[in-house]
Write a structure and sequence with these properties.
Blueprint lengths: L1 E3 L5 E3 L7 H6 L17 H15 L21 E3 L11 E3 L4 H4 L4 E3 L20 E4 L4 H7 L5 E4 L12 H9 L4 E3 L2 H7 L4 E3 L2 H8 L7 H11 L4 E5 L9 H17 L3 E3 L20 H47 L25 H5 L11
Parallel strand pairs: 5-6, 5-10, 6-7, 7-8, 8-9, 10-11
Antiparallel strand pairs: 1-2, 3-4
Helix pairs in contact: 8-9
Length: about 375
Amino acid sequence: VFVDPARNYEAAEFPAVSSAAYVTRDGGRTLKRDLSLPMTNKSTEAQRVAFRLLEQGNNQIIVPLPMNLSGERIAPQDFVQLDFPSLGWTAGENMVPQSEAFDNAAWSDIGTPVVTANDAVSPFGNPEWEFWACSPGTCGLVVNHGARFDKFFELHRFEPGKEWFSEGYVEFLRNFKGPVFMGSEVAVRDSKIPNAVVIDVHYLTNKYGPYFFTSSLAWMCAMAIEENPEAIAFYGVDMAATTEYHDQRMGCQYFAMIAASQGIEVGVPPESDLLRPAPLYGVCEHSHVWIKETARAREIAGRLRDAKNLVAEKQGEIEFLKGVLDDQDWRLHSFTGNFDTNHAYTTSIIMPEILVPKTEEAVNTKPSTPKKRRK
């Protein structure tokens, strides 16, 4: 299930995700798993998360591997080779899913609801963590899962009744126990949120510049840096889409770099793409992966163009057949019926009177004349 904005952010089911190739490989045996995605508010994104988990589940096993200090060079998403002949394992690339350092991070924020956040990914319930959150999608974590948030951010213009400010979301903000940071004094006044606080825009933009505050997460990260924590971890933040998240992602990366430069550890779970750098302009075009993916994109674009042309051709055929069908319908209701079963019935255009045919007996016999009686 995921949180559906169309249903006032109540839980809703999304289409199941499966792999026919995996089912065939496993001899038709399937393993089903119910997935709760309280930080995801789109069905398509929920399916994308489910597909990722399906792909991760296809990995054979996860092996906890204690290492000495040389293991500090390994980070999540790196590939290493494991060679244990006694276990029947041969050298091969294995991805590192997560590191203990990120498991024990000291500070967290919950952000845009794109990636699932649960006890297996984020440390809910750990009193050593301080949780900051934003956006209506995170309300479901409190209402449905009992999550604890210490601070909440709602920086948009307060417009109750619109899709973003649903009745349930406004009620959540007004009942929130911690501070609710808002974008202006007007929003604080109109919202009537008891714990509303105006974010210090002037101070933060003077210190960090005005160019990278592209999302609520960017403001949150800047304020977190001000508290000088040991670590900052982003959970429930992906920003992998090529829409508005493109600019928002760079803002988060900018403040993550500032935090790291000040000795603050910054981490994300392996499900998130947030800290993946953008392609290096110009230089990336020499990469084998870039060339391969660009060729693939051109191929797909060509197939899409051909499909659109086929649709246009068929659309013309559809319009033609609709006209033919309309004409046929007119003929059906104008020239059919039981009046055409006896062709002897005709109608004259000039004298529209029904001509009654003579019977066969009348045609084959002559009219009789009365005989004179003799006296």
